[in-house]
Design brief:
Number of helices: 7
Strand content: 15-25%
Low-confidence stretches: none
Structural class: alpha/beta
CATH architecture: 3-Layer(aba) Sandwich
Strand order of the largest sheet: 3-2-1-4-5-7-6
Shape: globular
Largest sheet: 7 strands, mixed
Radius of gyration: 17 Å
CATH class: Alpha Beta
Order of helices and strands: HHHEEHEEHEHEHE
Distance between the termini: 61 Å
Length: 242
């Protein structure tokens, strides 16, 4: 059986990644990001409409539970979603104060009548690379799902996440490990490259993994965050003050 060229390339790139030979790309020009990647992103949400469905919300719940998070874990705590997209996955966490940073938030709210971003306690329609001073040292927990490879400056985003966390706070980051840039994914985030940024930024890497939990993989389909078996996941801690 002859494999398609796309499949052969994917296998070859996967082997190169395992050998540490894929070069990370941690920056893109903001101009290109705004004109290409963000337009691609908005059109995806506008036209695909997967995020509109109740199924999307159920899959989001399954995703969090597969990574070991409990709905009541951050009750009465401040949590933050970096790159939420058009719907609030963070509703999974009961009684939490949810803050959203999503560069396309205003466009989603103005154009998609099913977007529920206004249900968050606060919404900031700015790139994750822009520091929001009033949010510094405010978050008990920050998560970002399938978003950081869509940004334009990974190092700056991580600096801001560090600033937003309270001392001792936890960040959970999960994103695709692409082997080359695409229209919607301008950055190439490798395990080695990311860990160097985390360590330089002062984070404690408590845990990292690749792929999804078994229960989530059983329900994979063609939409959303389900296609990739090469997502990488990190649990990062901001050190508590001495």
């Amino acid at each position: 059986m002859k494999l398609p060229k796309k499949k052969i390339r994917y296998i070859a790139e996967g082997l190169l990644a395992q050998m540490g030979l894929i070069k990370p790309k941690l920056k893109e020009s903001r101009e290109s990001w705004e004109s290409v990647a963000q337009e691609f992103e908005f059109e995806y949400h506008e036209n695909t409409r997967y995020s509109e469905t109740d199924y999307y919300i159920e899959k989001s719940k399954l995703l969090f539970s597969s990574f070991g998070f409990d709905p009541g874990q951050f009750s009465d705590k401040v949590i933050m979603d970096i790159g939420s997209g058009s719907r609030l996955k963070g509703k999974y966490f009961n009684k939490a104060k949810l803050i959203v940073i999503e560069p396309l938030a205003n466009r989603y709210l103005e154009n998609l009548d099913w977007s529920d971003l206004n249900d968050a306690s606060a919404v900031y329609s700015v790139p994750a690379e822009e520091l929001i001073v009033e949010l510094m040292d405010s978050a008990d927990f920050i998560f970002s799902i399938n978003a950081l490879d869509h940004c334009y400056d990974f190092g700056k985003v991580m600096q801001n996440i560090y600033e937003y966390l309270k001392p001792g706070g936890l960040a959970f980051l999960s994103f695709d490990m692409h082997y080359h840039s695409t229209l919607g994914h301008p950055l190439v985030l490798t395990d080695k490259g990311c860990q160097a940024v985390f360590q330089e930024g002062g984070f404690i890497i408590e845990r990292h993994s690749k792929g999804f939990g078994e229960e989530f993989r059983k329900h994979r389909d063609i939409n959303g965050y389900d296609l990739s078996s090469t997502c990488i996941n990190y649990w990062l801690r901001k050190p508590a003050k001495a």
